[in-house]
Design goal:
single chain, alpha+beta, four-stranded antiparallel β-sheet, 17 strands, about 30% strand, rod-shaped
Length: about 400
């Protein structure tokens, strides 16, 4: 009888502990009469026999009720050690019966019956190989040129792997320029309020700023996506890249390729790289619009000077107060018919008109004017159309 009980208990315990156990068979198994007797509460006098001592208050007929939980209790570590194979023999029954029985009873205490009832979990998808990031450094942003109420053009160089041979062409890649228009929040941190961009296969790109003022702070970065199977290649634009109908031709709308993101059509996880984001005012790289030189006239009593009158466009990136405050760097270019070689000189421009005293007396000059913002990184504007004027006579020479 004990051997039959042990067999049933070992069937249930093997289904609980082994990963490939037959849990369905364990759920459908019908316990024998002996297992039901052992699992029910009954009088077990032999285990709790009263003392023969007349002074014992329990008496000779005292019995204890042994519940099913007591029968299924986990054996102590010492009993488990004695029940292992090759352990010392039990003096009465031997370890061939009591050892497997105690092990099975201990296994039932560890069994997760909810797992048995639920069955084995469904098989998951087979794990694929992890994507390998492209070797080499990310692209390096070289510089940008902003135009007031216009666009921005940026240039960069591709990241070349360190193990590439000298003069080796960079690997084929798709680049996305991300330009974020920022504003300052309550704390000193910056918050993006609008995002612009464009995509290309080369190393330069022009993004429309949608009439934005370049006085804002702009954060610029470049995303590089390696071309590969199922990824955006040359002449393509996946769902996360700028394309017609998304945010205007060649633009990136907010939420498409924001900071630190790559759209699904750019490259898979780990297959894109991003250059460090550079945040600064757009005026540090603004190319000012060319101005108009209205008139060049002599200055009475100053034969080496000319009075230059000029006008700026309506949407100029530098205000009149900033111009008078010295935030504008100016330069003139002049030449004569007798000396066609052009000369250049720095001047201090003021709003409306200013004097330049670098000329010879009684000489006709053709003069052009250009400006740039005070930052040395800002490019020069285009030259104004030339304007001619003659310096005054030198009274001392005439005398």
């Amino acid at each position: 009888a004990l051997r039959g009980v042990v067999g049933e208990l070992r069937l249930v315990s093997s289904s609980c502990l082994s990963p490939g156990g037959d849990r369905r068979a364990a759920r459908q198994a019908v316990p024998s009469q002996r297992v039901r007797e052992l699992a029910s509460a009954k009088q077990r006098g032999a285990l709790f026999r009263a003392s023969d001592d007349p002074g014992d208050p329990r008496g000779r007929h005292d019995r204890r009720v042994v519940s099913a939980s007591a029968l299924l209790a986990k054996p102590s570590p010492r009993l488990q050690e004695l029940a292992l194979p090759l352990a010392r023999k039990w003096p009465l029954m031997g370890d061939l019966v009591w050892g497997p029985l105690l092990l099975a009873l201990g296994t039932l205490g560890k069994c997760d019956w909810a797992t048995v009832a639920r069955g084995p979990p469904p098989p998951g998808p087979p794990p694929g190989p992890p994507p390998a990031p492209p070797p080499g450094p990310p692209p390096r942003l070289l510089g940008c040129v902003f135009f007031q109420r216009g666009n921005v053009t940026c240039h960069w160089e591709a990241g070349v792997p360190p193990h590439a041979p000298p003069n080796a062409p960079p690997p084929a890649a798709r680049y996305t320029l991300v330009v974020e228009k920022m504003r300052r929040s309550v704390n000193p941190s910056l918050v993006a309020i609008e995002t612009f961009g464009c995509s290309t296969d080369g190393t330069s790109c022009m993004a429309d700023l949608r009439r934005s003022n370049v006085a804002f702070v702009f954060c610029v970065s470049v995303l590089e996506a390696q071309a590969g199977p199922g990824q955006a290649g040359p002449g393509q634009a996946g769902p996360g890249q700028a394309g017609p109908g998304q945010a205007g031709p060649g633009q990136v709308g907010p939420g498409q390729a924001g900071p630190g993101q790559a759209g699904p059509g750019q490259a898979g996880p780990g297959r894109w790289r991003r250059s460090p984001s550079r945040c600064q005012s757009g005026r540090k790289e603004v190319m000012l619009a060319p101005v108009t030189l209205l008139r060049v006239s002599p200055v009475t009593g100053q034969p080496r000077c000319l009075l230059l009158e000029w006008d700026r466009p309506m949407s100029y990136a530098v205000s009149p107060s900033e111009i008078n405050g010295g935030n504008l760097t100016s330069q003139i270019e002049f030449f004569t018919q007798e000396q066609p070689a052009k000369e250049q000189s720095y001047v201090r421009a003021r709003t409306g008109s200013f004097q330049a005293c670098v000329f010879s007396p009684a000489t006709w000059y053709s003069v052009r004017l250009r400006h740039r913002y005070r930052a040395s990184s800002a490019p020069w504007s285009l030259w104004s159309p030339p304007c001619s004027g003659r310096t005054a006579e030198d009274d001392d020479r005439l005398g």
